[in-house]
Design a protein that fits this description.
- There is one protein chain.
- The protein is of the alpha+beta class.
- It has two domains: 5-60 and 100-265 and 309-428, Outer membrane efflux proteins (OEP) (Up-down Bundle), CATH 1.20.1600; 62-99 and 268-302, Outer membrane efflux proteins (OEP).
- It is 68% helix and 13% strand.
- The longest helix is centred in the first third of the chain and has 68 residues, at 101-168.
- The two termini are 31 Å apart.
Length: 435
């Protein structure tokens, strides 16, 4: 009776977190979208880029400045008595750029930078979704390992109890009993490691999602559709739609516009100006009757020489453009490589689902045959233990193949820039719902 107590405790522990009121994959994903600091930082990055765009646009919009001055004056002139008087001057000035090519290109650059920030935010969302799926599956995989070790322990406990009974009657060798007991102790060690791994996996899921991970819905689906399309098509699509690559393309455009802006610093700047002045003081604040003057004009600024600032600005922008192009090329190669790798891994994992299933079925027959042979004295208990170990390891590999397929499928869609909220909801439908 005592031998069954640990198993009952194990089953009760597993049943609580993974069946009753289980948390879904979508819940963890939504929690991550709301609270993940990396994604939140990207959202602030988008807001910052919007502000930078508005700053760049302001240079081309009307500028209006109002100023007011109050003065107290002590006027002294040779041969005349000193006079003290106060006065005031108010000025309203307006300016509208008519020709400012440098500022125009800076505005274009800021708009590309905004698009870059938006693509970086989307890339961060996809990466976060992939992390949530990966860590969710890690929790499920550790739970399966605990369950698998528990089932293996149950089988060994039954054999150990039977062998001890037979040893008391001198029907089996002492070495057979010792072999089984040693094997059982190894399972206890594996169980400790599996439970520790499960706790770590739950904590990593909590870190990513911001939710206390306690009850996780297990995988209910055992068969999946194969990966569609061809390897080359996935790689081509990834280069075209991966948000990180798109962001780097926007960075190239932004840098290109800054080069044009730097070159345009040599061009004249033309602006329409208007002002209205009201004052009761003249030149050097000399006392005059109150007067008002309105002015409308065109202002032309022609840069001649600024100590090499313009040339340095162009060289700096050109270097940034070169860096952006090289960064894009490096990222493109990496994305294409990762996409091809994920595609091949997904195809292999899909094939492993069927092959491990067939292996489990075959090893179940092997274990049955070994047990029969042991009963007849044709094999040793070690042979039975080896067959059982191969069977339970094969079952673990069968579960792992399913999780690996989902991981590789998710990675493939992340690299190709195709992982959407609907994909997460579809994967969530593969999980068992808690009651």
């Amino acid at each position: 009776m005592r031998a069954r107590a640990p198993r009952l405790l194990l089953l009760a522990t597993l049943a609580l977190p993974f069946v009753a009121h289980a948390q879904s994959l979508v819940e963890f994903y939504r929690g991550a979208l709301e609270s993940n600091p990396v994604l939140r930082a990207r959202e602030f990055g988008v807001e910052q880029a919007k502000a930078q765009e508005q700053l760049a646009a302001s240079r081309l919009l009307p500028q209006v400045v109002a100023s007011a001055n109050y003065y107290w004056n002590d006027y002294r002139e040779a041969g005349l008595a000193a006079r003290q008087y106060d006065g005031s001057r108010t000025v309203l000035q307006a300016r509208q750029a008519l020709l400012d090519v440098a500022s125009y290109f800076k505005l274009q650059s800021a708009r590309y930078t905004l698009a870059q920030s938006e693509q970086q935010h989307e890339a961060a969302r996809m990466t976060l979704a992939g992390d949530v799926v990966e860590r969710y599956l890690a929790v499920l995989q550790t739970a399966d390992e605990i369950e698998n070790v528990g089932a293996e322990k149950e089988a060994i406990e039954s054999q150990m109890k039977r062998l001890r009974f037979m040893r008391e009657r001198q029907l089996v060798k002492l070495t057979d009993v010792l072999e089984v007991e040693a094997y059982y102790q190894g399972l206890l060690t594996r169980e400790i490691e599996a439970r520790s791994a499960a706790a770590v996996a739950l904590e990593r899921l909590r870190e990513t999602s911001g939710l206390a991970a306690e009850r996780v819905a297990p995988l209910a689906r055992s068969s999946f559709a194969p990966v569609s399309g061809e390897e080359q098509q996935w790689a081509s699509d990834a280069v075209r739609t991966n948000p990180n690559l798109t962001a780097l393309q926007q960075a190239i455009e932004a840098a290109s516009k800054l080069v044009e802006s730097g070159r345009a610093e040599h061009m004249p700047q033309v602006a329409l100006t208007a002002s209205k002045t009201n004052s009761d003081q003249g030149y050097d604040n000399r006392l005059t009757p109150p007067y008002s003057v309105g002015t409308v004009g065109v202002q032309v600024n022609i840069p001649l020489f600024e100590g090499g600032r313009v040339q340095a600005t162009v060289r700096d922008a050109s270097a940034r453009l070169g860096i952006a192009r090289e960064q894009y090329e490096g990222a493109r190669r990496e994305v294409e490589r990762d996409t091809r790798t994920a595609y091949l891994n997904a195809r292999a994992s899909y094939a492993r689902i069927d092959s491990t299933g067939a292996e489990v079925h075959a090893l179940e027959n092997v274990v049955a045959a070994q047990r029969t042979s042991y009963e007849m004295g044709a094999t040793t208990i070690v042979d039975v233990l080896i067959a059982q170990r191969r069977l339970f390891k094969s079952r673990s590999e069968q579960f792992k193949a399913r999780y690996d397929y989902i991981r590789d499928f998710t990675t493939l869609r992340v690299r190709a820039g195709r992982l959407t909220d609907q994909d997460i909801e579809e994967m969530d439908g593969w999980m068992a719902r808690g009651r």
